[in-house]
Design brief:
alpha+beta; Helix Hairpins; Dna Ligase, domain 1; 2 domains; five-stranded antiparallel sheet; about 35% helix
């Protein structure tokens, strides 16, 4: 319960800072420091501290991911970070492996389905063991991998969103972008046809 209290307290401080931001700026411009001292203590931006959005910890905070180092490490080890999937595929293809195993999540399963549909991987399957994994069978053109590049765009600390009219073209249409929309995960081509935008997860070419 303590961690929830810390997070909620920080949220209230942020709301107070936003509420008095314009007034503080005006007083500073006028040099009214006596008036500034009469404002609520939490109206000052320095009162807001960086806290992990999951655990509420303020130590070892990673700005890029908006969480503490401990939470990030647990998420990485349990395979909850989609960027881990891209790295595993990239490394397996560099080593010319026939397949790679990836910790299971619904998002990763949807990404694997899109890669298969677009012809970037041969196949994938979900192993229903104690710890579910996704087996992705890589695709090669001779000794060269079909996937030339993978790039993660959105991250927990910096979400990237695009509208239906601003969906990017990857490598002049030779690659794909994978988006998380209100209708599920889909490629940029499918999102453009359905006229929906969403969170831009990654580029594949």
């Amino acid at each position: 319960m303590a961690k929830k209290a810390w997070i909620e307290r920080n949220k209230r401080k942020s709301e107070t800072v936003k509420k008095y931001a314009a007034k503080r700026a005006q007083m500073k411009a006028q040099g009214d420091y006596a008036g500034l001292s009469k404002l609520p203590r939490n109206a000052s931006p320095v009162r807001v501290v960086n806290r992990c959005s999951v655990s509420g910890r303020r130590h070892a905070y990673l700005r890029k991911f908006a969480c503490s180092r401990l939470v990030f490490r647990e998420a990485a080890l349990s395979g909850l970070i989609p960027g881990d999937m891209l790295t595993r595929i990239r490394n397996a293809q560099s080593a010319r492996l026939s397949h790679t195993h990836i910790p299971h999540s619904k998002v990763k399963e949807s990404i694997a389905a899109i890669l298969k549909k677009e012809g970037y991987v041969s196949d994938f399957s979900v192993d229903n063991e104690a710890h579910k994994t996704i087996q992705v069978k890589l695709k090669y053109d001779g000794r060269r991998g079909v996937i030339e590049g993978l790039k993660r765009i959105s991250s927990p600390g910096l979400r990237q969103y695009v509208g239906a009219t601003t969906i990017p073209r990857v490598r002049g249409g030779l690659g794909i972008a994978i988006l998380s929309t209100s209708r599920g995960l889909m490629s940029n081509h499918q999102a453009r046809r359905q006229n929906v935008g969403g969170e831009l997860l990654c580029y594949v070419w």
